[in-house]
Amino acid sequence: MANRLSKIVTRGGDKGETSLGDGTRVAKDDPRIALIGDIDELNSVIGVAIAHLGEGEVQGALVAAQHDLFDLGGALCFPGAPLLSEAHVNRIDEAAASLNETLPPLEEFILPGGAPAIAFLHVARTVCRRVERAMAGFAREEETAAFALQYLNRLSDFLFIASRFEAKRMGVAETLWRKEHSISSTD
User: Fold this and answer.
1) d(CA 87, CA 171)
2) What is the pTM of this model?
3) 63 Cβ contact list (under 8 Å, min separation 6)
4) Are 13 and 29 in contact (CB under 8 A)?
5) Which domain holds residue 37?
6) pLDDT number for residue 52
């Protein structure tokens, strides 16, 4: 592989601007740049979750998702470029369905926790929901974002299912919401 980046410190962003892939200069707080940063953050949080998981079905799906998210961030650098595809959405749908078919039905709301890997999957899910909200706003202006929006919605679902799957695999009880622990239960 050729060197993609020979110089990391360029000083090109010292005045609060950065370049898109087509050379256009934009402010670093431009919604497109903010979305790229949010996707990068999600990818990093998924990396933390992977680091706490053993090898298996969840890890494999998350590594694929990291590649999808990297591709999404890269595509966002080029205005008008297609942002993911139906194949991306189908792959995460299939991964979620595969895990979910092994799980018992939900009987109560689940709170984040139980074990570090499970908690990190929940953190990744909440970051994914934030990215999804940002993508929803972006999609109103950018018609090429429809599959990306669907993908992020499905990915957050996958992360929730993965947390349940890992709890079961690890033999860790899920942390359930209980009305009796809520201060509102005394009303």
Assistant:
1) 33
2) 0.87
3) 50
4) no
5) 23-176
6) 95
